[in-house]
Amino acid sequence: MSKRGKKVGSTLPKRDANVIFSRRAALMSFVGAGVMGAILFRMAQLQAENLISQQYTAAADENRFDTRIVPPPRGVIFDRFGTILAQTSKDYLVAVIQNDVDDMEEVVGRVATILGLDSEWARRAIIRVRGGSRYEPQPLKEGLTWEEFNAINVRLPELRGIVATSADVRAYPYDVVYAHPIGYVQKPTQRDVDLALEDPAAGAARAMYLRNPQVRVGKAGLEASMETVLHGDAGWRKVIVNARGVEQGEDETERREPVRGSGLVLTLDHELQRTAMQNFGEQAGSAVVMDIHNGDMLVMASAPGFDPNLFVNGIGQADFDAYNLDEKKPLYHKTVTGVYAPGSTFKMIVGIAAKQAGVEDDWHVSCGGGFYYGGRTFRCWQRNGHGRVNLHNALKVSCDVYFYQAALRAGPERIAAVSRQFGLGEVFDVSVPNIRAGLIPDPVWWRENRGEPWTGGLTVNYGIGQGAMGVTPLQLAVMAARLGNNGHAVVPRLVRDAPGVREPGPAPRMNGIEAEHLARVRDGMWGVCNEGGGTARRAGDLQLVRHPETGAAVEITPETRGWEPVQIAGKTGTAQVRALTDALRGRHYSTIEWRFRDNALFCCFGPWHEPRYACAVVVEHGGAGSSVAGPIAREIMRATLMRDPSRREPARLAELDAAIAGGRA
Asked: In the CATH scheme, what is the homologous superfamily, with its name and number, of domain 270-321+328-647?
């Protein structure tokens, strides 16, 4: 084919192809330059902004650093003379870092074997730790003994992901002795976290803090009610983390140390508190000792106790069931939540009310063992009767028949009014939770709550502290204190020195309580403990005498036997918890089911020559107050009078806290 025969346009001329390529290259270069220019401009803009606001530097740091909370040590709790009752100490624990574990079931199972725990514990531990961070140690078991801690430590090379360490934890060196007044701390619950989230002042920051596995909060006693004082301020540290949040180091320049919580100095005397708890033995009940002038509670014992250390790291189900199912209720703070019929300890109130109603000192009744009223016979505890008795002798021998009739003379309204003057039915804020008021009924209350009129039979029962009424051991102690100080409305307190706590002023005099009426009742109480026929002669036999030079109470010895005896004034009480038939009462007392036996009570004040202390003891289902509660009160009062703590200089919180901070205590 000739050159003319070739197709025209089958290929572009070389010059045209070069032109097109040059145009495209120029276009691409222009676009690329524009994009690069925009990027460079934006980078310059961001750099300029960052120079001013540091916004992006901070964002980068947030990805590289993490803030870890450091829980503060709780404030130390002291007795009145500086004995440490609750403190922060080292706790040994074994933990797991989930991200470092290949087989969680296998490694936790091996930990369980080393510690002598079963597979159920291992299963529960795995469930618990899987709810926490994968990159921080999650506690498997806390409260390890030194031997358990070492057993884990020596096997760490073969336990990948397991760490053995120590942490600060709350410790109670005297366990059961102060379990109820001091209480205990526990790990926060989900409810605690939810409540924090609902609080606009705390919010997410508080909730995040509560999720820290080392945090504990007060759950009972002073630990709960004084949480804001004891807790302190959390610290924090800035740690370096990788992209997965694993800690790689720490920025030592960015750290705030936690601040220990403030301490508390209590009014309690450790030696007396321990004496009270020891004297209860296997019995259940409560004992309170008060300074009758300033209200200091020197003893606040509730028996049996429990070990608060078991709650700090989470009490086991077996231990909790043992406490919770015990019929003597060791978890129950009987001093403020136990409500009991006062029995014959109420007779002083009835006596004062009768005097207010105009009953003369020489008014006598004849006790033949019972009092017929309203179609039935109200019996005296002494079946053969007490014969002819007045107020003094009726208190001394605890004659029921006298007080049946005295109550009718006084009337229920007056008896209730006098009761309340002496602190019965009143809630005293002594800085612990769940304080109950008890019940002092009157005709108005009865009509409003029972829907029926008050009857004379109720008044008769009122006369001996039985029926629909109840008081707490704390209220009984207040009553005894106000009798002992001759009619001043002293108020109890448990915290002696703490932020915001002030020294109380003089107790005001009670309205309408005449000194002459008090004198007649106080004399009767003295007879109870010191005269022939008194129901508490055993409790009144302190075997103490008064030192002629110092006035101190000292034990009787051949050399001191001629010195003036130290005496107390008191009153026994035996209160039914269930009406027992004659046949049942005729059985040997030990054969009656424990929960149906009478409660035993005793209250007193002393020393008689110069009253300073009041004591109340309640023994649940103990039987007769004279033979059970009285002897316990005797040992407590004997120790109190010999020790005489109110005349010794108490410890000062500022000095104790400074010693703790300086490592000297």
From this structure: DD-peptidase/beta-lactamase superfamily (3.40.710.10)
